[in-house]
Amino acid sequence: MSKTFPCARRRKPITRDAPPAVGAESASSEDVEAAQQDPDVPPEPAFDKDGQPVLDGKGRQKQRYPKTTKVVEAKGKKAAERLLETWIAELESHRTIDPDRLRVAELLDRWLEATRGEMRVASYNSYRRNRRLHVDPALGQVLAGKLTRTQLSTYYAAKLRGSKKAKPLAETTVAHHHAMLKTAYNWALEEELLLVNPALRVKNPPALRPKTRPVWSMEEIARVVIKARGLQVHAAGVLAGFSGLRVGEISGLLWSDLDLERGFVNVQRTFEEDDDGSLLEYPPKNGKARVVPLPAAACDELRVWLGAQKVYRLAQGPAWNEAGRVVPKKDGTQMAPSTLKSQWWNWVARQKIDPHLPIHGLRDSFGTWVYETYGVKQAQEWLGHGDPATTLRHYVRLTTAARAKAVAGLDEVTRAALKAAEARRDQEETRPSNVVVLASRRGQA
Question: Which CATH class name applies to 218-395?
């Protein structure tokens, strides 16, 4: 009785009864894959690893036959059968199925399962939410190998447009959907589950264009920090507004990371929160620790907070958790980033501060001030970005004062250039021509 085993990237199943090719005594024992031309399987258009058509010398797209069998060579029939059994077991362990039956939802499932250890928990949870709430209902049951760029473009347009039941999504959010699908298909290509990545062929995919959000000036940050003295949000406002720390970095900050005498903070860890509420520690976002200066006034504010924290410690008594955290809960235990965000947001709302900025908005404000004062390179270093493009794309918002200053500077330079050009023109008009000068010299002679 014949048993069949499904094969990735192959249109026909492998049969256990099919005899393996047995080489001569001198044949190599390594696996050799060969694409067999099967008259029952039509040729397919050829694409490269980036999803672009492969052209011949005349500019026509090449055709190729899909692999339908695998040939193994070994010294002897038993050795060849062992190689074939190993290959079949490998396919089964990866739950490989015929690409004609692999759906988009199954592809995303396998990609997330296979790469979970390679991504941070926040990224993993974000992918899961986007997949469950958006991609699965629209594209989940589409065959992964049949998904077209037209279907993807239609999906993106529908998400940007919205409907009666769903609000339109921001272009940046839809761009994250596109990036997720592109990454999942790239993984499928590497695993030889699929042949083409349709996301690479989408024309004008949604782009990462963050919204321009308001920022506070340094004076506005200072006024808010003074209002927050004695509260847990006080230190968070100081660290985000005067040193540009991320909320996850503030959550994991210890007093031993601060040097209030010399004025700097050593940022060497960040925390992210899983769906079950557990906190996971990671290196800072770009994978590198960084040292950020603390202004003397900011050090004074943190000393004020340290005194307020001693009051919390005395109130808790033996229940106080002496972990040395800069912004803990009232019992000294670690505060989750989400809790810190909500505490800050609610406190700012009660104070009726306008514009109403989240805690990350203080980091944006700090980055904008550094950029306007010292340039993009310094902003990149203190914000902890891997490259200046990230700083410019996501965190730098030109303030009204800076825009006015730039316009005034442009006006001044333009006026000076025009005056210099007019002076040179007048000088050239009053200068005698070469013919007049030559005639004058001849008359003198």
Answer: mainly alpha
